[in-house]
From TrEMBL:
Catalytic class of the enzyme: oxidoreductase
Binding site for FMN: 64-69, 79-80, 108, 143-144, 188, 198
Superkingdom of the organism of origin: Bacteria
Residue intervals of the Pyridoxamine 5'-phosphate oxidase N-terminal domain: 46-162
Keyword entries, A-Z: Flavoprotein, FMN, Oxidoreductase, Pyridoxine biosynthesis
Organism per entry: Acidithiobacillus ferrooxidans (Thiobacillus ferrooxidans)
Cofactor, free-text remark: Binds 1 FMN per subunit.
Cofactors required: FMN
Catalysed conversion reaction: pyridoxamine 5'-phosphate + O2 + H2O = pyridoxal 5'-phosphate + H2O2 + NH4(+); pyridoxine 5'-phosphate + O2 = pyridoxal 5'-phosphate + H2O2
Alphabetical GO biological process terms: pyridoxine biosynthetic process
Entry-linked SUPFAM superfamilies: FMN-binding split barrel
Protein known as: Pyridoxine/pyridoxamine 5'-phosphate oxidase
Domain Pyridoxine 5'-phosphate oxidase dimerisation C-terminal: 175-218
EC number: 1.4.3.5
Length: 218
């Protein structure tokens, strides 16, 4: 590449909607559920995709896209190989942040908090719900570790299929789930001329666990 690639003039205006304090559910989990449902209704083909940011014990950041699999008022859950860099980072520093972006609605949601591992019971239950191919892929892969070739990876899957011809490959104990327990939510609605609407939910210690909502400047 020669020279600067200039995108300073690349922009669009946000015209989908507005967000007012009176529109917000007092419970951020319900607000999130409503916005996720709206993203799905708007035909976002990957509405559950979230950018997950973690850092190691020295504070070096890392980020990747993962898929939200389920949530309730205890937190947002996803599954992965816990031997991965993400797993090692969360073991050293169990804090994380996620962001969802739904361009069809000009909306973004940010969530941060502490992370805990899901139980083996929960991991087993979800693993068995996955398509057969996904189960064999998870069992064959040591996520993020180097491998010589695509053929070598496929050979690992083939060896497992030969060993478990009925498709009942077991979950590797290293494959499991995590739950992000939110400390803050931020709901962002894009507006014209970059005068966006932003609201943050937090739970200060002196509120007895009640969520407090503040409007933020864009």
């Amino acid at each position: 590449m020669e020279g600067e690639i200039d995108h300073r003039s690349t922009r669009r205006d946000y015209v989908h909607s507005e967000l007012h304090r009176k529109d917000l559910n007092p419970d951020p989990f319900h607000q999130f559920s409503d916005w996720l449902a709206a993203a799905i209704a708007a035909h976002n083909f990957d509405a559950t995709a979230m950018a997950l940011a973690t850092s190691d014990a020295e504070g070096h950041p890392d980020v990747r896209i993962v898929l939200l699999k389920h949530f309730d008022e205890s937190g947002l859950c996803w599954y992965t190989d816990q031997r991965s860099p993400m797993g090692r980072q969360l073991a050293a520093n169990p804090q994380a942040a996620v962001v969802f972006y739904w361009p069809e609605n000009d909306r973004q949601v940010r969530v941060d908090g502490t992370v805990e591992k899901l139980s083996d019971v929960e991991a087993d239950a979800y693993f068995q719900q996955r398509p057969e191919g996904s189960r064999f892929a998870a069992a064959a892969s040591e996520q993020s570790q180097p491998i010589a070739s695509r053929a070598a990876l496929e050979q690992r899957v083939a060896a497992l299929r030969a060993r478990y011809p009925a498709g009942d490959v077991p979950r590797n104990p290293a494959w499991g789930g995590y739950r992000l327990q939110p400390e803050h939510f931020e709901f962002w609605q894009g507006r014209r001329s970059r005068l966006h609407d932003r609201f943050r939910y937090s739970r200060p210690a002196d509120t007895g666990g009640a969520w407090v909502i503040q409007r933020l400047m864009p």
